[in-house]
Amino acid sequence: xxxxxxxxxxxxxxxxxxxxxxxxxxxxxxxxxxxxxxxxxxxxxxxxxxxxxxxxxxxxxxxxxxxxxxxxxxxxxxxxxxxxxxxxxxxxxxxxxxxxxxxxxxxxxxxxxxxxxxxxxxxxxxxxxxxxxxxxxxxxxxxxxxxxxxxxxxxxxxxxxxxxxxxxxxxxxxxxxxxxxxxxxxxxxxxxxxxxxxxxxxxxxxxxxxxxxxxxxxxxxxxxxxxxxxxxxxxxxxxxxxxxxxxxxxxxxxxxxxxxxxxxxxxxxxxxxxxxxxxxxxxxxxxxxxxxxxxxxxxxxxxxxxxxxxxxxxxxxxxxxxxxxxxxxxxxxxxxxxxxxxxxxxxxxxxxxxxxxxxxxxxxxxxxxxxxxxxxxxxxxxxxxxxxxxxxxxxxxxxxxxxxxxxxxxxxxxxxxxxxxxxxxxxxxxxxx
Length: 433
Description:
Elements: H1 2-22, H2 36-53, H3 57-102, E1 104-112, E2 124-130, H4 135-138, E3 142-144, H5 149-156, E4 160-162, H6 170-178, E5 185-192, E6 195-205, H7 212-221, H8 223-233, H9 236-241, E7 250-261, H10 272-292, E8 295-301, E9 304-309, H11 317-344, E10 354-369, E11 376-380, H12 382-393, E12 400-403, H13 405-410, E13 420-423, E14 428-432
Parallel strand pairs: 10-12
Antiparallel strand pairs: 1-2, 1-6, 2-3, 4-5, 5-6, 7-9, 7-10, 8-9, 10-11, 12-14, 13-14
Helix pairs in contact: 1-3, 2-3, 3-8, 10-11
């Protein structure tokens, strides 16, 4: 590790980027050192450092401070990736030795992905490492605990020898995905302090078939492996680097989707640079209102925005419902003023723009989703999907605020507004006049 840090120091800011690029992706696991958020911050710092170096002595001091911050971030990223790489390589080396003793053609290690807590009850397993070219596809497969052989071994703690017989078994379906033929498996539960922490699988004995003597030997030989796997899965950072984060607490929130009707038509009448400025002006106006009502900007979707009310300080249900309704009314009025200004300034096509706001509420879960290298924290649940549908189903010929039935039912009698029902192909939504 010290050699790695020394390498960074000797390269300098530009060389460090080269050093990061040279760190190999672990062959036994999908470890990605660079995170989108960290990389964006680093890119920004590099640009700022370059500008400051060209100015006064004071700025050069600031440049050095920025450089130190940049170097610290690079070092942290490399250290995290290197340590995880070392852990997985040791796990892979140990199971490879056991597989050789058992005369197994291939092997794999599966770990629980639903939680990084050893005492939790996961619902599926994922592959931490595996031998052979099939690993490239195996690493994206989740193995359900309640319907798979590996899951049964993990749950019961009993070593099992099996040969897939029915084409509907999970093993046979997996074989089709990875283009492999499983003739026989020996599966051993990896246990640490009486807790199941993973499963070691050995496939297709080269000389004959696995038997009870092999199972006993595998259990004995896998004891040290179980300790290494336990260390790995108990480290939240390690599991998050692999793309598996623990499920967060469920929350009751209000979801709001905001969208502009007819925005795409602007590209036929206005220069793209001006459209970008108008779009950012609109985002600034709408997001400022949302933030003033304790909303979280979850994501931008083209000319749309997804807001979440009720995160952060654990607001009471009626509180975040009220905040969302007030914000929606202010957004509608603010956009009308913004649109009036655009039309006055002569931006052709802006007179046909309308803002649509769709709201719903309900219980959601926080989750990290997306490609392993670019995962982002968001909320998922039916209320999010419903709010999105309400927004898309809302009228396109006027500025409008629409609610779902769930939102309307959740409002107490004093807050319940007068609304106009609108029938859609999926459900009835309610428009606030």
